[in-house]
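Sequence of Acyl-CoA thioesterase (Psychrobacter saeujeotis).
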Amino acid sequence: MYPFFRYAKSITKAVIANKKGDQLDLADTSEIEIRCSLTDIDNFLEMNNGRVLTLFDLGRTDFAIRTGLGKQLLHKRWGLVVAGSTVQYRKRIRAFDKVTIKTHVAAIDERWIYVEQSMWVKGKPCSSALLRTGVTSKGRVIETQEVLDAMSKSDWDMPPTGYVAEWIESDDDRPWPPRVES
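Predicted 3D structure, token representation.
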């Protein structure tokens, strides 16, 4: 089940932080803390890999609200979409561990905002995800320049380089729809 209570709590915390002046720039990193609960774990008593992706939603929500994107989403009736992701798992997160979720923009191109997120326990990285995200209007992804203009960040430029550019290129080589072998 989706963690609606945690989601509402993270929205409330982000709105309060934003009103207190704890705002973020697009170049900043958002950090939120959660506790790995019993509803997050699998039969091995560690955080379920699918739950990691779900909880990353909380970090992206905090980032959106504190950068001002959230206000534009509401005002313009825009939505957010994840169009691709790659995840690395390196260290187990156990029940009741205190987890820090870090979120920042890794790159932006004409259509997509590439977001990197990570989970940390006791100062050690546990998992990391690179996500291709977009802002939608009426069911279609809009150009990032329109989003940047709405946020008064028209001159902001962060083209994909390094591993982000390599991931984009590699993902372009992936067949769609996927091949089905019989």
